[in-house]
Design brief:
This is Fructose-2,6-bisphosphatase. InterPro entries: His_Pase_superF_clade-1, His_PPase_superfam. With about 190 residues, this protein is of the alpha/beta class. It has one domain: Phosphoglycerate mutase-like (Rossmann fold). About 30% of the residues lie in helices and about 20% in strands. The strands form 3 sheets. Strands 7-6-8-3-9-10 form a 6-stranded mixed beta sheet. Strand 9 and strand 10 (about 180-185) form a beta hairpin. Helix 2 (about 60-75) runs parallel beside helix 3. It is globular.
Length: about 190
C-alpha cells in the first residue's frame, strides 16, 4: 500500500491517521457520485426520470457500497441525513452507501453541476459563495457531514474530483471558511484499516 501524506495546514497527516481523525467527527466529506456510464444527460433532463440522465454502472454501485461499508467498518460517525444532489446517480450513490431513508436531496447541488457549462461570472460567484457557506458550517458535534454531488471544473471551487473521490474538509464555522484536509480516491479509502 502506498503511503500518502495530507497537508492539513497545521500538520501532516498520514493515510493511516486520517480515519482516526475522522472517527472524532468535525469534518465534511464532499464526494463526487460513483461511476456513471449508463445513458446520457438529455436536454430535457427530468430528475424524476432516470432515463433522461447518466446513471450508475455496476462498478459505480460497487464503489458506493465500498464507500459506505468502509465508513461503517471504521466506525466513522456520519451525521444523517446525508445530502445528495437531485440527479439519479447522486441519490443512488448516497442510498447505496447510507440507506434510502438516510438521504436528503438538496436541489442547490445542481448549481455546482452547472458550473461546468455556461454560467456568467456573477452566477459562478453566487454559486461559489453558497458552496463556501455550506462547507464552512460545522456538523453536529462528534459526527461528520457527507455531501454526495458533483465534480467542479478545473481551478474552480474544489476542482476536479474522480468518480467516488472524496475531499475531506475541516469547516471553521460560519463566516470563517474551511480547510481542505485531503483528497482521497475510493481505492485508497477501501484500504483504510486493512
Amino acid at each position: 500500500m502506498s503511503q500518502h501524506d495530507y497537508n492539513t495546514g497545521d500538520f501532516f497527516l498520514s493515510e493511516r491517521s486520517l480515519p482516526q481523525l475522522l472517527s472524532q467527527g468535525g469534518y465534511t466529506l464532499y464526494s463526487r457520485h460513483a461511476e456513471a456510464t449508463i445513458g446520457v444527460d438529455q436536454p430535457n433532463l427530468d430528475f424524476t426520470n432516470c432515463q433522461t440522465q447518466r446513471n450508475l454502472s455496476e462498478n459505480g454501485r460497487n464503489q458506493a457500497h465500498t464507500y459506505g461499508e468502509t465508513l461503517r467498518r471504521l466506525n466513522i460517525p456520519i451525521m444523517t441525513p446525508v445530502v445528495a444532489s437531485p440527479f439519479c446517480r447522486t441519490r443512488e450513490t448516497a442510498a447505496i452507501a447510507f440507506g434510502e431513508g438516510s438521504v436528503y436531496v438538496d436541489p442547490f447541488w445542481v448549481d455546482v453541476y452547472n458550473l461546468s457549462f455556461n454560467v456568467t461570472p456573477a452566477q459562478q460567484q453566487t454559486i461559489l459563495h453558497r458552496v463556501q457557506s455550506i462547507l464552512e458550517t460545522q456538523p453536529q458535534p462528534g459526527t461528520n457531514g457527507v455531501i454526495i454531488a458533483h465534480s467542479f471544473p478545473a481551478n474552480i471551487g474544489l476542482g476536479p474530483i474522480p468518480d467516488m473521490g472524496t475531499v475531506v474538509i475541516r469547516p471553521r464555522g460560519q463566516g470563517n471558511g474551511y480547510e481542505v484536509v485531503a483528497h482521497v480516491e475510493i481505492e485508497e479509502m477501501a484500504n483504510w484499516g486493512v
